[in-house]
Amino acid sequence: MAHVTKSKECDRKLKVTRDALEVIQGKWRIPIIISLLYGDKRFGEISKDIAEISPKMLSQELKALEENKIVVRTVYDTMPVTVEYSLTDLGRSLKKPLDELMTWGSNFRKVILRGA
Amino acid sequence: MAHVTKSKECDRKLKVTRDALEVIQGKWRIPIIISLLYGDKRFGEISKDIAEISPKMLSQELKALEENKIVVRTVYDTMPVTVEYSLTDLGRSLKKPLDELMTWGSNFRKVILRGA
DNA sequence: GTAACTACTTACTTAGAGGTAACAACTATC
DNA sequence: GATAGTTGTTACCTCTAAGTAAGTAGTTAC
Hints:
Two copies of one chain form a homodimer. By secondary structure, chain A is α+β, with helices and mostly antiparallel strands. Chain A is 63% helix and 12% strand.
């Protein structure tokens, strides 16, 4: 297996990326993960972080992230029931790719604003 | 500016990410960029790399990437007109985030397969 | 002149992502 | 028992990303 052609390598990477994209695609998943990278949070707190998200979308996307083992939901049996969301190890391992993406994003802004 | 609260930091990152996401979101943009990271290519060659993409989507997404300064389109005045697509510096600078994402993707596969 | 190849474009349709709004369950307060 | 504050859920609607299929423009081959 020492020799892999460039096109085969490209092909393999395309497949791996597809899997990763399925998990984090959509308008809200990455924002939710970023919010949770800054600490475990309750439903209402994530809502405040991501002002534009509706409760329906937040609930739905949290559920999807839970199914994909990115997020854990913990229910506390307090007086007004409290629910806390936190990242799994797998979820936290998204920090590096997302940090790189954010670095790229701020550079992108600079280049586009300068170029316009 | 030495002191920035954690929540402000989170807020800022959410905004930057939003910009980055707009550029690379959708089912096809990242695959197209990955294909071009493996060399400048013609329309038909990208089509072959990403077997499932339709000519309409490829044309449309290439145009969008061009508008966002990620891709450059060069027309060669040859007998059957030849068009070549390549990445700009800005486009090539996506290599690092995408590599990180692919690394994460292959780890994700392992964890999910093991856990199921 | 007609068939075939490349590189797209256009028109039409569909699926599902996302939005809005109202409701539900629980407790506390008046 | 009516009102309000959490933490969501449900039903319904809309809109856009993506898919399908056919067409166009230029050249080559016969």
